[in-house]
Structures are given as structure tokens and as C-alpha cells.
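Appendix B. One record, verbatim.
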Amino acid sequence: MREPAREREVDDVETLKALADPLRLAILGVLTRHGRDARSVKQVAAELGESPSKLYRHVRQLEKVGLIAVAGTRLVSGIVESRYVAAQRSLRLSRAILQGTPGEQPEALDTLLAALDATRAELRDHFLAGRIDLGAPRDGSAGLPTALGHFTLRVSPERYLRLTGQLWALLDELAGEGDCPDEHAVDITLFSLLYAAVPPRLPDDPPTAPPQLPDDRSAAPPGPAGP
């Protein structure tokens, strides 16, 4: 069995369309978590609480664009059953496919929104199953805490670049780690979304130039795992 690629850069619309669905992202997430331990559609469906018949077409679409691969087959009650693995450990969207005219939707937007929906569903399932404690204290004195934050703040372009650099550094650090073999290890999920929006203008406001970025951006280079 081939080792999954460490990372795949998504730079085509067909793959984006395959990713722009919360259920397909959930299927891919299950297979990614299991690594080289191939899973059948029935096994994936059981983990997701879905019927296998609902998953087959989504699995075919993921296989078509190479996001998952058949790792083996076996005969079950006279029917050939395929077992699948994820073809990569992580994904990133290319800068080229993320770019678009302001006010227009790039094809990647549906994928980002699907990822939000999939993360929401996964959080809900874990919470209802008693696997996470949203109220644990930050110091970890009574369970593992959950880091939650949602706010809007106006900052300078320089500060924004420093923030994105720090975030990419954390994402790169985690992407480079393997699974911890300790028996007390836990599964973590980090979903990051940091973006800068140009302040809204009133109809009578004079035109303004776009924010100027500093000439020296070495303090916050985009990480190699970023889009």
C-alpha cells in the first residue's frame, strides 16, 4: 500500500467541487483519521451515523478526483467490497484558485463554507457523545479545555501580517507532527479562519486607496502549508 502524501495542493475546480460538500468532507475526515487502516463504505457510514447507500456516490466522487484510493477488496456475501484510504494527510487550496475579483465568489468559497458546516457537525457529534468538555477551565485543572474565540478587531496591515504569520507557524508545526502513540493521547481539531475585510464605505465617502502593506514582510511570511 502506498504511503499517503503529506499534503496535496488543490488547484483545480473539479477537486474543489468534490470538496464543497460537508458529507464528502466528513468521509474524507474519517479516512484521514484512520491513516493506513483501510475502511469500507459500511464502516465509514457507521462512524458517521449514515446509511451506506447515502455514501456510495460521494465516495465515487472523492475517488474520481484522487482524494481517496482503493487499498484492497474482499468478497462479502458474494459481493466485492472495496476498502479505502485517504490519499493525503492534509489539504491546502492554492493561492491561484482562491483569487477572485472583489465581490465575486471564487469556486473555493463553497469549499470553505462546506468545511465550516462539517466542523460544526463534528463538534456537535463529539459534544453529544460526551467526548469534549466546553466548560473545562483554561488551566486544565478539571479536564481538557476548549479554546473558543470569535471577535472583530481593527488592526494595522502590519499587525495583521504578524498574526497570520504566527497562525501559519502553528499550523505548520501541527502538520509536521505524527500521531502520538501515548495511550492517553487525545484527538484534537483545529479549524482556523482569520481574514481581513476592508471597512465598509458610505455612499458619500470619498474614494480611498487600498491598505498599503509594508515593504519588508519578512516578519510574517506565509507558511508553506498555507494557501
